[in-house]
Amino acid sequence: xxxxxxxxxxxxxxxxxxxxxxxxxxxxxxxxxxxxxxxxxxxxxxxxxxxxxxxxxxxxxxxxxxxxxxxxxxxxxxxxxxxxxxxxxxxxxxxxxxxxxxxxxxxxxxxxxxxxxxxxxxxxxxxxxxxxxxxxxxxxxxxxxxxxxxxxxxxxxxxxxxxxxxxxxxxxxxxxxxxxxxxxxxxxxxxxxxxxxxxxxxxxxxxxxxxxxxxxxxxxxxxxxxxxxxxxxxxxxxxxxxxxxxxxxxxxxxxxxxxxxxxxxxxxxxxxxxxxxxxxxxxxxxxxxxxxxxxxxxxxxxxxxxxxxxxxxxxxxxxxxxxxxxxxxxxxxxxxxxxxxxxxxxxxxxxxxxxxxxxxxxxxxxxxxxxxxxxxxxxxxxxxxxxxxxxxxxxxxxxxxxxxxxxxxx
Length: 410
Fold this sequence. Notes:
Elements: E1 17-24, E2 29-31, E3 36-40, E4 42-43, E5 48-49, H1 59-62, E6 69-71, E7 75-80, E8 86-87, E9 101-109, E10 120-124, E11 131-135, E12 147-153, E13 158-163, H2 164-169, E14 173-175, E15 184-191, E16 214-215, E17 222-226, E18 234-238, E19 245-250, E20 256-261, E21 269-274, E22 279-286, H3 293-298, E23 304-307, E24 317-318, E25 320-323, E26 336-338, E27 341-342, E28 351-352, E29 357-360, E30 373-379, E31 390-391, E32 396-399, E33 404-409
Parallel strand pairs: 1-9, 25-33
Antiparallel strand pairs: 1-3, 2-6, 4-5, 7-8, 7-9, 10-11, 11-14, 12-13, 12-15, 15-16, 17-18, 18-21, 19-20, 19-22, 22-23, 24-28, 26-27, 26-29, 29-32, 30-31, 30-33
């Protein structure tokens, strides 16, 4: 008989193995055998699935004594799960975790036992306009997984609690819908054993002194420009605007020009048809709030002033819109002049910048009421108190600046 040679081929059954991602959350931990670990989930002797898989099955990747992993001197190895909860690898059962799960290793500073006052900086995200609080990673001390980080509002109530691992994974940045533009906050470090609950006052023990009070900016960019839809008028655009914030616009007298408005799909809020050469005030409030602009200001929220002056308006022809109630339009039997020249009512839609306008109303309306006054309802007439000023120059309205609307009262 001839010789028969048999090669035994072994192939890993992927259904009998589970993979884990082992990553470092800081520069104090180094994995020397890579980050992609796997453990056997089937017991071939008992011919059954393993219900208890200890962390020792990961020793090829995590055994510090064998050189699989290096921990910087002065630090101890600490493990966290995907929810940033600390995990005890001496008692963990890997069978309880799904395939592809990620564990993150951090180095805890063995000397960082005393709580410290963090240094914090407020800002708005350049893409979303959302509030951000940055915790300084260098001074006065390095961020550590040995602390929790607590954020409180101006009233001393807790709005957020982050583990050190969470903060490190976010590059030291705190963000979320609990933070609002224009609002003030303080940040603390707390012992990991200190009970801190969102909505409750900051505890009095087991927590550091507060950071310096910081206030989130109201807007990142609020730009004044010529309104492309209204010749000679201005617009203010907030870009980007925070999706969890609404914005109101007030005139110099505190009157509401635009009530609270949410950003559009492009993360913008546009306030159009505004007066040039005017300082407007932007007031923010959290989405879902019912506060009025006045209530927000009284509560101490930071506002933002925007000046619509110096726009370099390019339009040279402007409309003058006239509204009359139950009376003939001016020019029917009365006089209209532009630049000292007699004109028709239709000519009021194309008045050149700087031309003097004179409009004579009908002395009596269709109901027999006598003319009372002219009222400017929008726009800039060149008079110092033009908005809603009552003009009582008989029945002649004179105007000598940019576009405006006026109504006669009879």
